[in-house]
Amino acid sequence: MFELLGIPPQALFGQLLLGLINGSFYAILSLGLAVIFGLLNIINFAHGAQYMLGAFVAWMLLNYLGIGYWWALLIVPIVVGAFGIVLERLMIARLYHLDHLYGLLLTFGLALIIQGLLRNQYGISGLPYSIPPQLAGGQNLGFMFLPNYRGWVVVASLAVCVATWFVIEKTRLGAYLRAATENPTLVGAFGINVPRMITLTYGFGVALAAFAGVLAAPVYSVNPNMGADLIIVVFAVVVIGGMGSILGSIVTGFGLGLVEGLTKVFYPEASSVVIFVIMAIVLLVKPAGLFGRAA
Question: How far is the C-alpha of 241 from the C-alpha of 227, rounded, in Å?
Answer without folding.
Answer: 20
